[in-house]
Design goal:
The complex is a heterodimer of chains A (316) and B (248).
Chain A: H1 5-30, H2 38-60, H3 79-103, H4 110-135, H5 148-170, H6 176-202, H7 209-213, E1 221-225, H8 233-238, H9 244-270, H10 274-301
Chain B: E1 12-17, H1 26-35, E2 45-46, E3 54-55, E4 59-66, E5 73-80, H2 88-91, E6 98-100, E7 107-109, H3 119-123, E8 130-132, E9 137-139, H4 145-148, H5 161-165, E10 171-175, H6 182-190, E11 206-208, H7 215-219, H8 234-247
Parallel strand pairs in B: 1-11
Antiparallel strand pairs in B: 1-10, 2-3, 4-5, 6-7, 8-9
Classes of the chains: A mainly alpha (316), B alpha+beta (248).
Chain lengths: 316, 248
């Protein structure tokens, strides 16, 4: 599948934003972040910025972005529509939470706590819907794996957790617990991703050009002449292929630079004084960004669509 | 709405005969010609005279080799929307632009509400939907909805442009939901089949397999021995002698 940069930016940036929102809500509910302090406000603004950047970027890959509002109408059947509805709905408690902090910080604590809970639930549901857009497509074997949506949620929580640990260190608020939690999440995400790759590598490739054309009873089927001289939309969108050698190098880069190294840096940050800890958390955040963008690029580039059978793939 | 109709009154579709298709591409060009001026207008082309020409077409004809040796043959393989009974391209659509008609089962895209997200093309295993880069929306086979019900056309023209254009009669149009229709009988008689049935989208269009070759046609070899045509005359015997000397 063609790795569209707008969709990679959308899923990684808004994933981190939603993850940050979840951890911020949990931290506020547990009392480790003051519900109306500067840290909570900065976290909310950053989460909203990441989410909004992602959502705006996702409209860039539309042919008619001005009609994007129509996408909230078909939530009954379409995971993409559900994602849109949930993303918009999550703005309501998140925005109210921010307003409450800004204008009436002395309000009864239950109000921001309730809004935080709603925002966290909305954030998790939105990321789950994003994962389900892919997981619900049986035409792409690597995506119709039961691990796809859980990994989306796990990666959002891990990246958001790293960002919150960084923010806490920057604001001089206790960051150690969040750093350790984020490190554990990164390791869990790395294990889940490794399992996912193992599964897609060993999954049977049972769809063949013989079943796609129905000509298997005659014998082996191979393309003789393509229907067009230049790649068409189907080949450009669905026929993207990445060399296996490069894919395995990129997987190692993603796991090493994006998950393992940042996890170690966060453990280190938990034992350092505030200033070096901030730098360690910053380095971990940059590493995670590289890792998760590489992971998302591979998620698309490695996914083989069944339609490629008509264009020369022997089995998918 | 992207919710599918529980059942459709008719199941209009195509039956494509892989035995008689000669890969002439007449259906491809007539489809493009009709639809670039009809319901799907425009069907844009990018760089039509440039280095990388490509565009939106609703019907593509591949050519494959199938089998080896005496069984081996060339099969021309037209590929367009199969108007599935349970099309995922419709249910994934976030805007409701994609829909399946309850009255005849035709799968259509509303060009006024499609946002060009391309998710339907990901959901379709048959590559039936193409993105129009200029128009910014998805294009697909409409089964020539603007021909088949068009009372301003003469009755014989009220069928899809591809069917009308086929010079070998390899394309048939009709109601596959009616067991007594000509297309249903054809499918029953010739063993018409679904593409990728294991994916479960229940395509309406059916493909007729190439007929088995006659044994003589594949086993009879070209003559290899010299033809002995001597009628015993002196001239023939002279030629035979010359042939023998020269062949030695």
């Amino acid at each position: 599948m063609n790795p569209a940069y707008s969709v990679i930016l959308f899923t990684t940036a808004s994933g981190a934003g939603y993850g940050l929102l979840v951890w911020l809500a949990i931290a506020v509910l547990l009392g480790s972040v003051a519900p109306s302090g500067a840290l909570a406000a900065a976290g909310l603004v950053l989460a909203l910025a990441l989410i909004t950047t992602g959502l705006l970027s996702s409209t860039l890959h539309l042919g008619r972005p001005e009609r994007a509002w129509r996408a909230v109408s078909q939530w009954r059947t379409s995971w993409l529509s559900r994602e849109g509805v949930l993303a918009l709905a999550t703005y309501v408690p998140t925005g109210l939470w921010l307003l409450v902090q800004w204008f009436s910080p002395s309000i009864w604590w239950i109000v921001p706590a309730f809004l935080a809970l709603l925002a966290a639930a909305g954030a998790l549901a939105t990321v789950w819907a994003t994962g389900m857009i892919y997981q619900s497509l049986p035409t792409i074997r690597a995506w119709s794996e039961p691990l796809v949506a859980p990994v989306y949620v796990l990666l959002a929580l891990a990246t958001g957790g790293v960002v919150l640990a960084l923010l806490q260190a920057v604001f001089g608020s206790p960051w150690q617990v969040m750093a350790i939690v984020a490190a554990v999440l990164l390791v869990a995400a790395a294990i889940a991703k490794w399992l996912y790759w193992h599964r897609i590598d060993t999954a049977p490739r049972s769809w063949t050009v013989e079943s796609a054309t129905g000509l298997g009873s005659i014998g082996r089927v191979r393309p003789l002449e393509p229907p067009h001289s230049q790649p068409n939309f189907v080949m450009r969108e669905m026929g993207y292929a990445v060399a296996r050698k490069h894919a395995s190098t990129l997987r190692m880069l993603s796991l090493g630079a994006g998950f393992v190294a940042p996890a170690l840096l966060l453990v280190l940050a938990a034992s350092l004084p505030p200033v070096p800890a901030t730098f360690a958390a910053l380095a971990a955040t940059l590493g995670v960004a590289v890792g998760v963008i590489t992971e998302r690029w591979l998620f698309f580039a490695e996914a083989q669509h069944v339609v490629t059978l008509y264009y020369g793939a022997e089995r998918v | 709405m992207t919710a599918l109709p529980l059942a459709t009154e008719k199941k209009l579709g195509l039956v494509i005969d892989l035995d008689t298709c000669v890969g002439c591409q007449a259906c491809v060009t007539s489809c493009k010609e009709w639809n670039t001026g009809g319901y799907s207008a425009p069907l844009s082309d990018e760089q039509p005279y440039g280095a990388d020409p490509h565009g939106a077409w609703l019907n593509r004809v591949h050519s494959y080799e199938a089998g080896d040796g005496a069984k081996g043959r060339t099969v021309h393989f037209p590929r367009s929307c199969l108007h599935c009974e349970t099309p995922a391209c419709v249910t994934v659509c976030p805007t409701g632009a994609s829909y399946k008609r309850g009255e005849d089962g035709i799968v259509l895209v509303n060009p006024d509400t499609c946002i060009g997200c391309k998710l339907c093309s990901w959901a379709c295993p048959y590559g039936a939907r193409e993105y129009d880069y200029t128009d910014g929306i998805m294009k697909k086979c409409t089964l020539c909805i603007d021909r088949i019900y068009n009372e301003t056309l003469s009755p014989e023209d009220r069928q899809p442009a591809c069917v009308r254009a086929c010079p070998t009669g390899a394309r048939h149009f009709g109601d596959l939901g009616d067991k007594e229709s000509a297309v249903s009988k054809l499918v029953a008689a010739r063993g018409g089949y679904d593409l990728l049935p294991e994916l479960g989208f229940k395509p309406t269009n059916k493909y007729l397999p190439p007929r088995p070759r006659k044994v003589e046609a594949t086993t009879r070899a070209a003559p290899t021995e010299a033809i002995s045509a001597s009628d015993g005359s002196p001239a023939e015997r002279l030629f035979a002698w010359v042939d023998k000397v020269l062949s030695a």
